[in-house]
Design brief:
single chain; alpha/beta; 29% helix
């Protein structure tokens, strides 16, 4: 196998940790000796052990003189565990191939420097773009101070997410809904606005996929005026729930939600709404790196207007609702096409009777 194929395997291993390892990156690692894979590893649930540690443990004595393929620069600082760069040196590996460097100030070239100073050959840049996509959440937190945002829209052919009466279940079919649950599982958290929480009574959980670790649920509600008998309130003590609110939220509601088990995050308010920039900074400070946003229309427009959508995933159903239906994206105040945000198509594919299309910012 070539370096590229070994790195592709390491990347596929790393994806197994997506949604389960925050605040750490979902790293994959492969140890190769004389053309034979002797160790494989990925970041464990909760963020440790790290991928390199697990792969080296599996390789055992065979790691001596081996080549190691890892999707992110090995850490170089002492945290809750010793640095992975030192573990590689201690295992006496001969070569380490790294997809991308780690811009975390605690690492940022130090891991590579440690390896080279110990006489380990280091090569970088193999499948770099793929690795940047896989580690987009960790990179966004490190470089931008906010999580990566995936915005999901499931709508009719004419871009509606509900009828005029609010009926929305179900516009898309069962295969699309199952695909969405798989996407939730690969993110640290699922986020909606207060209107969606009030009108849809969502659970925001991953169902029917046999996952052990549920994503954190996030609701942006300035006044905390959410149903106290709904699914979110009922499960707040069982599964993580974060409520981002304004300073003017009712104190009694604040205490009630706290008693139910929710984590309350006060945020700045701008133009009568929660300041989305401030909310995302505070969510990043809690360790969240990948957030899957499922609406509603006002939150979607806020994220798009603020240029905070890193990936946009649309599911279009073969149904037409008409102009009186609720639009997938709220008002944006655009008066010229030149000001409209544009995205680049990454891929599209049928999902049951619906069409999925994935876009990235241009």
């Amino acid at each position: 196998m070539s370096d590229t194929r070994y790195m592709a395997l390491a990347l596929s291993l790393g994806r197994r940790g997506q949604g389960n390892v925050w605040p750490n990156p979902a790293v994959g690692c492969v140890v190769v000796k004389s053309g034979r894979i002797v160790g494989r590893g990925w970041t464990a649930a909760g963020g440790r052990p790290h991928a390199e540690t697990q792969a080296l443990a599996q390789a055992g004595a065979a790691a001596r003189g081996a080549e190691v393929f890892v999707t992110l620069e090995p850490c170089a600082h002492q945290g809750q565990t010793p640095p992975c760069a030192q573990a590689l040196i201690g295992a006496q590996v001969a070569r380490v191939v790294i997809a991308i460097g780690d811009s975390d100030p605690r690492v940022d070239g130090r891991g590579i420097a440690m390896l080279r100073a110990a006489g380990v050959k280091v090569d970088t840049g193999i499948l770099e773009e793929t690795a940047r996509t896989d580690h987009a959440g960790f990179i966004a937190c490190t470089d931008l101070g906010r999580p990566m945002i995936t915005l999901k829209l499931a709508s009719s052919l004419d871009g509606r997410i509900a009828t005029a009466t609010g009926e929305s279940q179900w516009i898309t079919g069962a295969p699309a809904r199952r695909a969405v649950h798989a996407m939730r599982a690969r993110h640290d958290a699922v986020m909606v606005g207060g209107g969606t929480a009030r009108h849809d009574n969502p659970s925001l959980t991953v169902r029917d996929l046999g996952v052990d670790r549920q994503p954190t649920r996030i609701v942006l509600s300035r006044r905390l005026d959410l149903p106290l008998t709904g699914n979110l309130a009922r499960t707040a003590a069982e599964r993580p729930l974060i409520l981002c609110h304004g300073a003017d939220a009712d104190r009694l509601l604040h205490q009630t939600w706290s008693d139910l088990g929710a984590t309350l995050v006060p945020c700045n308010v701008a133009a009568g709404q929660i300041d989305i920039h401030d909310a995302l900074r505070k969510l990043a400070a809690l360790g969240l790196t990948r957030i899957f946003c499922e609406g509603g229309s006002a939150l979607a427009s806020s994220l798009i207007q603020a240029d905070l959508v890193d990936q946009l995933i649309g599911f279009s159903a073969g149904i037409v609702i008409g102009a009186e239906g609720l639009p997938a994206i709220g008002a944006m105040g655009l008066d010229a096409l030149s000001r409209a945000p544009r995205y680049c198509l990454v891929r599209n594919q049928p999902v049951g009777p619906d069409l999925m299309h994935v876009w990235a910012r241009s």
